[in-house]
Amino acid sequence: MLMETIQAKDEVIIKLSQQLSDCEGGASSPTWAPTSPVAAPAGRDQLELDRLKDNLQGYKTQNKFLNKEILELSALRRNAERRERDLMAKVGPGGGGGPHGH
């Protein structure tokens, strides 16, 4: 389940990165002059570009945070599994009446 979550986040980041690069490519293209009738939509494009940049930065920050959380939870799970193995080794085979007793 954790791997699917990471993959979904990565796909969103890739998609947003592609949208951002598409918008930046269009914004840097000198296909219109500031005095042309297309200048007003260019302003809207710039706003959309800024919004996409903000969204992308937010997703990157969220991705870093969630990846850190996943790593911390994985470490906690490994430690818990190790402690459980250590306890089972102390109790010995068949001892303690656990699921391995039969």
Number of helices: 2
Q: Radius of gyration, rounded?
A: 26 Å
Distance between the termini: 31 Å
User: Shape from CA axes?
Assistant: rod-shaped
Sheet having the most strands: none
Percent strand equals under 5%
Helical amount = over 70%
Element-level helix/strand string: HH
Task: Report the structural category.
Answer: mainly alpha
The parts where pLDDT drops under 50 for at least 5 residues are 28-34
- How many strand segments? 0
Mean pLDDT: 79
Outline the structure in words:
With 102 residues, this protein is mainly alpha-helical. The chain has a domain at 7-23 and 48-87. The protein has helices at 2-28, 39-91. The protein is rod-shaped and about 75 Å long. Mean pLDDT is 79; it is low at 28-34. This is TBC1 domain family member 2B-like. Residues 92-102 have a biased composition (Gly residues). Residues 82-102 are annotated as: Disordered.
